[in-house]
Amino acid sequence: MANTKEIKVPDIGDFESVDVIEVMVSEGDKVEKETALITLETDKAAMDVPSPYAGTIKSLKVSTDDKVSQGDVIAIIEEAEEAAAEAPEEEGKEEQKAEKSAEEEKPEPKKEDTGQPKQQEAPAKQKPAPRRAPSPGELPPIDEKTFGQAHAGPSVRKFARELGVDLGRVEGSGRKNRITHEDVKDFVKRMLQGGGGAGGALPSIPTVDFARFGEVERKPLSRIKKISGPRVHASWVNLPHVTQHDDADITAMESVRKALKPEAEAHGAKLTPLAFLIKACVAALKEYPDFNSSLDSDGETLIYKKYFHIGFAVDTDGGLVVPVIRNADQKNLIEIAAELGELSDKARKGKLTANDMQGGCFSISSLGSIGGTYFTPIINAPEVAILGVSRSSVKPVFQDGQFVPRTILPLSLSYDHRVIDGASAARFTRFLAETLETMKGLIF
Ligand code: CAO
Hints:
By secondary structure, this protein is of the alpha+beta class. It has 9 helices and 20 strands. The strands form 5 sheets. Strands 10, 13, 16, 17, 18, 19 and 20 form a 7-stranded mixed sheet that branches. Strand 4 (36-41) and strand 5 form a beta hairpin. Helix 7 (273-287) crosses helix 8. Bound molecules: oxidized coenzyme A. The site of oxidized coenzyme A has 20 residues, from helix 7, strand 14, helix 8 and strand 17.
């Protein structure tokens, strides 16, 4: 007869309402005793909750982002028959507490402590192996220091060790950039496909003792830079970037913008060229849907998005963030200008939520308020293109046999050459410039 049991959150010390940051099993999964079921995170530590029984998960009672406390039911399990014959170990045996910060945690003791949460593993004490470039298809060696510092739960660490993956090199896609099992699998896939750079590994940059040459000061990177850096790097090394430059004559658009500014102000919005650019990009994405796609992870399928969510880069004290204007196709210029203002303000106050920065189809990086003439923006992967906008200036343009002063806006479109051909990029950028010139479909 089926022997079903409730699996409950064991003693997790003094913590209440702890975040579930990863659920590693699904209903119907067969699990062994000690298989990690979920990862919990307090503000001090992360811990896995292992299954106290072997059997089949009949129903799951928690999902990622839930909050749980001791005694809450995690899952109902149907115990495997041979295991059911044995007496299960007592649940909730008090032994460990999530008490120290992740850095201070001790490695998991090697004893049978069924049902107790497993805390984050401390870096193994080992002499660092000299770094050498791995051969194509080979995984780079584990750097114990960065492995120890990586933001991952104990079961992910164990999994990474089994596969020989250096967690310090894996980008986390979980909450607060935590590395998940899927991230480790994706990393291995990429490395085996030679996607980790030239032949699977990047040549390293020499370490220099700068203090030998003069006074120096060390400052940690900002939190945002620590997160955005690996993303920008991943895009740069994985996507073949090409940048197409063009100019848009925005003389007429600037007159219209100035005329509309008071109306925008009456709605509490500041009307800058960026609102026009967002509308023009939506029109171009509709005309050239390849630019509103993403390459599936199989590398062989394009996923076309039927919605138009446009990200825009905001320069904040902590670094670059990219909030997203959702359904930009359904908003008019003034609504877009108002949302630009609200999201930029939130970004600068560090108040953007993860939701504010998700779901983008295409991004714009505008350096127009600062200056410059053309640059090569890095694509916000897995998007396939990004528009860089520089500062407009009045230039002499030869028209009808004479030079006339026109306001010219420099545009720079970087695109993923695996998905987009140069001719399409030139057409897209031209369409964009002409839309800004004619303002077709931009004004209300
Ligand atoms: N040409 C000329 N003037 C421009 C312009 C352009 N392309 N773009 C903006 N301006 C003007 C605006 O019209 C405004 O002037 P007025 O007040 O006279 O109208 C002034 O520059 C300031 O604009 P703004 O910065 O307040 O507003 P915005 O909509 O242009 O930009 C935002 C908002 C959030 C994109 C911008 O503030 C920002 O952070 N830009 C930096 C983005 C960045 O760092 N990109 C690099 C990413 S890669 O590292």
